[in-house]
Amino acid sequence: MKKPIILAVLGVLVAAYFAFDLGQYLTLEGIKAVAEDLRAFQQDNALLVIAGFFLAYVVVTAASFPGAAVMTLAAGALFGVVLGTVIVSFASTIGATLAFLSSRYVLRDSIEARFGERLKAINAGLERDGAFYLFSLRMIPVFPFFMVNLVMGLTRIRTLTYALVSQIGMLLGTIVYVNAGTQLAQIDSLAGIASPGVLGSFVLLGIVPWIAKGIIGLIKRRRVYAGFTRPKRFDRNLVVIGAGSAGLVSAYIAAQVKAKVTLVEAHEMGGDCLNTGCVPSKALIKSAKVAATIRHADRYGLTANEPQVPFRAVIARVLETIKTIEPHDSVERYTGLGVDVVKGYARIIDPWTVEIALNGGGTQRLTTRSIIIASGAQPVVPPIPGIETSGYLTSETMWQAFAAMDEAPARVVVLGGGPIGCELSQALARLGSQVTQVEMADAVLGREDADVSALAREVLEADGVRVLTGHTAVRIEGRTLIAEHAGEEVAIPYDTLIVAIGRKARLTGFGLEAIGVDTDRTVTTDEFLATKFPNIFAAGDVAGPYQFTHTASHQAWYASVNALFGQFRKFKADYRVIPAVTFLDPEVARVGINEREAAEQGIAVEVTRYELDDLDRAIAESETRGFVKVLTAPGKDKVLGATIVGAHAGELLAEYVLAIKHGIGLNKILGTIHSYPTMAEANKFAAGNWKRANKPEGLLRWVERYHAWRRG
Ligand SMILES: Cc1cc2nc3c(=O)[nH]c(=O)nc-3n(C[C@H](O)[C@H](O)[C@H](O)COP(=O)(O)OP(=O)(O)OC[C@H]3O[C@@H](n4cnc5c(N)ncnc54)[C@H](O)[C@@H]3O)c2cc1C
Questions:
Q1: 552 lines ligand 1 (CB under 6 A)
Q2: Which band of pLDDT confidence, cut at 50, 70 and 90, is reported for residue 49?
Q3: Which among 236, 298, 382, 456 is placed 20 to 30 Å from 421, CA to CA?
Q4: Does 549 contact ligand 1 (Cβ within 6 A)?
Q5: Phi, psi (5° rounding) for residue 445?
Q6: Cβ neighbours around 188 below 10 Å, total
Q7: What are phi and psi of 484, to 5 degrees?
Q8: Rounded CA separation 694/645 (Å)
Q9: Does 244 contact ligand 1 (Cβ within 6 A)?
Q10: Environment class of residue 44 by beta-carbon count within 10 Å: exposed (0-12), middle (13-18) or buried (19+)?
Q11: How far is the CA of 225 from the centre of ligand 1 (A)?
């Protein structure tokens, strides 16, 4: 059939549905009234009624009209359990398949536009579990019946597979509904509702999704664990692999709730954040800020000086900072908290066994109920010619290299314009290096709004960084990076090359591949952070999608609680409010959506700005660069996102993080006393700007008249 004909048929059906108000028959009352009439007619015309009912059922499901559930009850009332089930089972399968086909061949664009987001989830599920995923969707109504038909049409599943799996998957629910229908038919007074048969059917209706969920869970578990032998008893409740932010918090929580937990770390306790990431970078940034303050001391009425930078001493302070914080994450502290800390390299042997190659020699094998993978991420190094002999550094290696330098490296190339690249470029430039920052995209901090990226570039350049955007690194010759820009090659000589183009999850070499834990760019987990093995979880950079210390520890709570108590209740990781700060000077801090994301996602927003050059404290501090930008739902004070650029923006952001998390609107922020003179007042003034733009003009006109009247 041609597309226009199918569309016309569907159009006629929809028009008829509304014109004749057919929906009234698809309610419980409506169907009961019709059932009464039909029963009389059925005596002499049984086949006709069956055929008519069958056809009507096919039309309702094929056209995705609401009412299939009510019709299933009616089938029970009219035909009894056995015949009713047979009729509904075939009619619903045919109807569902027609809806599926019309979605696949006729309505593709509109279905995609309407249910695109769900399509992603269903496609991911199909890829993971194949037709079994459809089977579970049919048994457990996570999505409405009609939506499954329509969205499945857009996937690559074969029509015959779809029809067969649907029929089998819907059978249990069909029987329960038809059975409930046979009981409903016997209700002729209110008292009838309380009959054990009717109540029993309702109970069955209520519990069937749970039973189905249980059955599916059981089948899934049997499938993933097939081929492995589960130990009779376990040495541990939990083994955590990796003692970075995610692993430490996971182990801490487990010990607090009295579980027997082992935390395995191959290298330094504290992971990347303490040893090579957040802590050293922020310590370096502070020294660089002081150097910049000396250089621009005239801004404060003092004599500006070119700062002396004994680089060795600067890095010694950075390392000292790590040493000072180290005890927070130490073996001693965690042992004292009740965690069994093992220094060694862990490998997963089977879903319940971890083998540790001990740093001191020898191995230790532990059986465990659950495992949390918290192995973190490592720098991405681009596979460009010459990279291996380029002497490149990454965040993992640069601190040691810096520690051996008396002076800041003279010519530095920083490859990458993301947060880490920007932070390092500015810090090294301020400490005396000649820095060239090379970024492939058109802007640095490309995930931020254009005005934020532009300001970031401006401040980097003000500190002497040569920012080359739209430059793609193509090869390295000796100590010269060759980048391509607008079809031309640009040669950038360096003494030190720092690669900061991103970080990739550590996924290989410790058993994930061997036992078949699914991975993509990160370990694949469900919303409870479980891998396909329900007792193996992942948290932190290795689980993604965020790469922050605060998201790692946030996920750790979910992973450990779900690992230890998931059999009672599981918690979905909540990613609704994730703050992110880039520690440039001025800082760039964001929570919720920005203008770019709002435009990409088609979300209507009202944007309110407050410029820091208006703020008394910022003026007193000569820290007037930056702004507060708040995104709200149009006409409402509900905060959807905030971006703050400015001194201490990371601290200022906390108020908006709280506001979004707990639904505190701009009116409440405006009504809250903020100390004078503080940078935090900027948040209140932004709320004030919003209020001015949203004042009730009509009401104010009346108030003006009232005042005029009062004056006489
Ligand atoms: C330069 C830089 C600056 C950063 N600045 C910030 C910032 O300001 N704010 C912020 O929030 N985030 C920042 N980050 C990111 C932050 O460091 C990470 O998000 C965080 O460390 C992730 O913690 P994690 O526990 O997932 O992994 P990690 O900290 O990487 O810990 C994983 C640990 O697992 C161990 N391990 C791996 N495999 C095994 C195995 N098989 N057996 C035993 N041990 C194993 C590793 O040795 C490692 O110690 C920065 C990162 C970098 C590189």
A1: yes
A2: confident
A3: 298
A4: yes
A5: 45, 55
A6: 7
A7: -110, 130
A8: 24
A9: yes
A10: exposed
A11: 30
pLDDT at 3 (0 to 100) = 65
Asked if 590 contacts 660 with a C-beta cutoff of 8 angstroms, the reply is no
- Give dist(CA 390, CA 402) in Å, integer: 17
Tally of helices (H runs) and strands (E runs) in the chain: 25, 20
* Ligand 1 pocket test, candidate residues 264, 286, 375, 581, most atoms within 8 A of CB: 375
pLDDT tens string 366-418: 999 999 999 999 999 999 999 999 999 999 999 999 999 999 999 999 999 99
Question: In this predicted structure, what is the pLDDT of residue 196?
Answer: 66
Question: What does the pLDDT average to over 45-49?
Answer: 86
How far is CA 705 from its chain centroid? 52
Q: State yes or no: pLDDT of 427 exceeds 80.
A: yes
pLDDT in tens, 648-675: 999 999 999 999 999 999 999 999 999 9
- Give the pLDDT confidence score for residue 469 in this predicted structure: 98
Q: What is the mean pLDDT of residues 352-363?
A: 97
φ, ψ of residue 539 in degrees (nearest 5) = -150, 155
User: Is 346 close to ligand 1, i.e. is its CB under 6 Å away?
Assistant: yes
What torsion do the CA atoms of 371, 377, 381, 383 make, to the nearest 10 degrees? 30
Ligand 1 atom nearest the C-alpha of 264 is: 43
Residues 6+ apart with CB under 8 A from 91: 53, 54, 57, 58, 61
Q: What is the mean pLDDT of residues 327-350?
A: 97
Give the mutation target among 252, 273, 341, 393 for probing the ligand 1 site: most ligand atoms within 8 A of CB. Answer: 273
Lowest mean pLDDT among 68-72, 416-420, 456-460, 627-631: 68-72
- Tell me the CA–centroid distance for residue 377 and ligand 1, in Å: 6
How far is Cα 318 from Cα 315, in angstroms, rounded to an integer? Answer: 5
How far apart are the C-alpha atoms of 172 and 208, rounded to whole Å?
Answer: 8
pLDDT at 111: 76
Cα–Cα separations (whole angstroms), residue 91 to 52, 80, 85, 94, 163? 11, 16, 10, 5, 11
> How far is Cα 421 from Cα 379, in angstroms, rounded to an integer?
12
Question: Ligand 1 centroid to 273 CA: how many Å?
Answer: 5
- With vertex at residue 338, the alpha carbon angle to CA 336 and CA 342, rounded to the nearest 5 degrees, is 90
* Distance in Å, CA 548 to ligand 1 centroid: 8
- Tally the residues of the chain: 712
Whole-number Å distance between alpha carbons of 616 and 519 = 51
- Are residues 140 and 170 in contact, defined by beta-carbon separation less than 8 angstroms? no
Q: Assign 509 a pLDDT band (cuts: 50, 70, 90).
A: very high
